[in-house]
Each structure stands twice: as C-alpha cells, then as structure tokens.
C-alpha cells in the first residue's frame, strides 16, 4: 500500500536513520589531507544544520518541511560518502558499496 501521508511514525523512523548515519559519519572523516578534512567537516555542518531544521519544523508541527529537511540532511551524508569524505561502508545508511 502506498501512502502520501507523513505520519509521526514515518518521521520518527527517518530521524532515527539519519541520526544514526550522522553519528557514523562524524567518526569516519577522511583526514588524508587538510582539504579533504575541511570538505568533510563542511558536509557535516550542512547535514547538522538541515537535521536541526528538521527538528525545529517537527516541533512546530510542520511534518512536511521536517521530512524535506531530513531528506536534504541525508542527501549531504550520501554525497559525502559517495565521494569518499566519509569512510563508511554501511549500505543500509548510505548509498555506498559494502566491502
């Protein structure tokens, strides 16, 4: 069954998945060069900002904007993982190949 409703349960699930991925990425920065580390930190900063925005929107009752912000947050994590800024191999949390 397909649903177009952003339920509290669905939002909670996506907060959980994105929060787990964010925590993993924070401990897996590519520090091979100062430049790569700086880029990884920039990606994490953007992720955190969107994640925090999602929390704000959730508190104000706007589940649509909260869900959108979560998707942007996770998009930053996925992009960082795909270009190797985060040394992660968990294909459940990121769009990466496992070894």
So what's the overall shape? globular
Radius of gyration: 14 Å
CATH C-level class of the domain at 15-82 is Mainly Alpha
DSSP strand (E) fraction? under 5%
Q: Give start-end ranges of low-pLDDT stretches.
A: none
CATH topology name of the domain at 15-82, in short, is Substrate Binding Domain Of Dnak, Chain:A, Domain 2
Largest sheet: none
Mean pLDDT value = 95
Order of helices and strands: HHH
Number of DSSP E strands: 0
SS-based class? mainly alpha
Q: Which oligomerization state do the chains in this entry correspond to?
A: single chain
Q: What is the percent of helical residues? A: 55-70%
The tally of helices reads: 3
Can you name the CATH architecture of the domain at 15-82? Up-down Bundle
N- to C-terminal separation?
34 Å
